[in-house]
Amino acid sequence: MNVVDVFELAGAVLVSMGGSGLILFAFSSWLGKVWASRILAKETNKLASQLEATKRELDVIKETTLRFKNDKIITYRIVIDVIARILATLDSFEGGRLHADDAATRFDEFNEQRIRVYGYLAMLAPQSVMDAQDNLMDYLLKISNNNATYEWEKVREMALAALNAIRADIGINDTPIEYHGDL
Fold first, then answer.
1. For residues 13, 14, 15 and 18, what is the CA-based torsion angle, rounded to 10 degrees?
2. Three-state SS for 165?
């Protein structure tokens, strides 16, 4: 074997190795892409499932929060209705438009309603609302039991304090409302 034959043989070996190397490289590249696609599809499906589960959980939290907020608003409306009725009774009685027997009946109704309202508030309201409600109700009870005199300005001040605590709790506005009228 001469030098030319050696070089031809070495060249043939290199060419054959290079061709198979090129084929091997192309095959491994294709196989890597197939595996990557399958792994990506599997991970994408898993992430989509997790995203859907998270979305369902968020929907439940949203619905629960909205229901709780609505319950608070309904309860606060009941409180306002009870307060409005007793204040109307006090105004009528103090103005001489309501007979004492009728006023006593309404005060008894108020006492029953205020106990019910307290239970409703105790389930939903924060302490700031409870404190403002207690101050107003205590004063109204003192008036109805003739242990305090009816002073509209004082009642209005306590009622506004209760309303402002309610407004802050349900997120309407943290800025307190004030009375700017003449009475």
1. 120
2. helix
- Helix or strand or coil: residue 36? helix
Is-contact 111 61, C-beta < 8 A?
Answer: no
**Contact present, 171 and 183 (Cβ < 8 Å):** no
117 CB neighbour count, 10 Å cutoff? 21
Backbone dihedral angles phi then psi of residue 171, each to the nearest 5 degrees: 80, 20
CB 158 within 8 A of CB 140: no
CB–CB of 111/152 below 8 Å?
no
Residue 163 near residue 173, CB atoms below 8 Å? no
Q: Rounded mean pLDDT of 113-140? A: 93
- What is the pTM assigned to this prediction? 0.67
Average pLDDT, the chain: 85
Q: CA–CA distance from 83 to each of 36, 98, 136 (Å)?
A: 69, 17, 9
Which has more confidence, 164 or 29? 164
Q: What is the distance between the alpha carbons of residues 168 and 174, in angstroms, rounded to a whole number?
A: 5
Token reading at 13: 């070996």
Residues counted in the chain: 183
Residues 6 or more apart whose CB falls under 8 angstroms from that of 114 comprise 82, 86, 137, 140, 141
Query: What does the angle CA 85 – CA 77 – CA 180 come to, to the nearest 5 degrees?
Result: 70
What are the C-alpha distances in Å from 126 to residues 44, 75, 80, 145? 44, 13, 16, 28
- Quick one: DSSP state of residue 147? S
